[in-house]
Amino acid sequence: MLVLSLLVVSRGLAASAPPHSNIIVDPAKAQSEPLRAAPPSAPAPSMDPIVATELPDTHFQPSLRDTMTPAGLRRLVALHAAHPEPLRPAVECMARTVFREAANQALSGQLAVAQVILNRTRSGAFPKSVCAVVGQHGQFAQGPVGVSSTSSKPWDAAVAIATIAQQEEVPQIAPGALFFHTTAVRPAWSGEHERVAQIGDHIFYR
Fold it and tell me: What is the number of structural domains in the chain?
């Protein structure tokens, strides 16, 4: 009878255990069961840093990488145009030439023209001053820039481009270029020089 009673009690306990129970009866198995880490929680959301292109132009802090992109150059030009400095003769001479030669070009094309002027002043084959370089007969477009033009946004951009070129804030667009012409013509001298780049409607040589 005692054996029968124990058997009944044992079966009763087994029947009362819930199905799929996590209870481990064997202590040896309990010691060998690997611990499972809790699933990782989702990382807390973080704010993305504000990039330069989202900042107002007047607060733009350009890096070298920024200025080598069209958007970065536009913002650098806007920064200079928003905070103009007194117009020095060299800047004005360069800006007038950039305006006459390339006001209808992208800013990179305007900067390339300005850098050609600067390269000439350093080459030893041309005058050493900007105004003397741009004043050479038959080299650059000549003529006055009207009052209406000098109060326009294209003029402000040309002044900014001249300033950027002379302060060397941006790497050379057409490295070492000393000459350029429009795609509409093919001057005889073009075959005597190394072609560097075509930017917009201008082809540059050194």
Answer: 1
Instruction: State pLDDT tens for residues 5-64.
Output: 433 444 444 444 444 433 333 444 434 443 333 344 443 433 333 233 333 344 555 565
Q: Which residue has the tokens 């002379």?
A: 166
Residue 203 in any domain: the answer is no
16 belongs to a structural domain: no
| In the block, residue with structure tokens 């400095």 | 85
CA–CA distance, 114 with 164 (Å, rounded to integer): 9
- Does 31 map to a domain? no
Q: Which domain holds residue 129?
A: 54-171
Tens digits of residue pLDDT in 84-131:
989 999 999 999 999 999 999 999 999 999 999 999 999 999 999 999
Residue 146 covered by a domain: yes
pTM: 0.68
> In the numeric block, which tokens belong to residue 80?
């200079």
- Would you say the C-alpha torsion 61, 67, 72, 78 has a positive or negative sign? positive
CA distance 103 to 91: 16
